[in-house]
Amino acid sequence: MNDQASDAPNTDDPFAERRRIREAMYAAAPVVDVIGIFISGGGGHTEADGQFNMTLKFYGWKMPPGKLHTSELSVDFISSQDKCDEIRKSLVKYNIYRIKAKVLLASEDFDWDEAELVELVGADTSDAELNEYLSELRKPVTYQDRELGVFTLDRDYDFFQSKTQWNGQEIELTLNVKELDENNAALKTAHQLWDQQAEWDQRVRQYLEQEMLPVKNDSWRDDGEAEVSVAEFRAKTELESILVNDDDSFEFWFDDGELFGYHMLYCRGELTTGFFQASLG
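Below the sequence we write its predicted structure tokens.
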């Protein structure tokens, strides 16, 4: 066996080389001061070595005395879960913080600005330009649609939401887009759904019953619990929200009426093909 084979690129992992480049760039990057507006983040996952990986999002940031960046800065922090929880709990949305970090700017190797957190220094309101930008971010971004109502940008998740009527019932409509105007593909898909809402409502309910009622009766009944009929299933499951993407796909989300232990139910579909997946959310 050739021992040098272990140094060869891993052709089974198409992202191995990208990760190697990223790790090398971080190893060479200096630790710098960054001040930025914290908007969202704090969730994470446990790595293979037991460490916890948390990501924070800054919208509006600079490396003083450098220029203001209005793009998102994704800041990763890997430590114990207790330390990550401590940092997450200390951060307040729409506040400016100073951190020490290694920063990689968007380039031909990476599509966005990112950083590795070294230290959270604390709140910092010393920069007038950032304070002014924060005032702008705090203003709501809305879009008025003639049929679907007023959409408001949720900066935590970068999508627009509206309360609107579907078949005589108020639901939440989410357009999974960062910017919204009359030519937006997700908005056009939503209009097509609403123009034929009676038909789509019937289709989604039939699909939900077809896919999830057998699951309830075969796997989710308590001992001695009677089988759920189609009528009972339909009466208990209630449409709460619709999410629409910009590729003509969408998701209908239902309250389970306690049939599945308070899980949400969803159906995924497309304008061209109809519904193709139903599951527990």
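The two ends are 49 Å apart (CA to CA).
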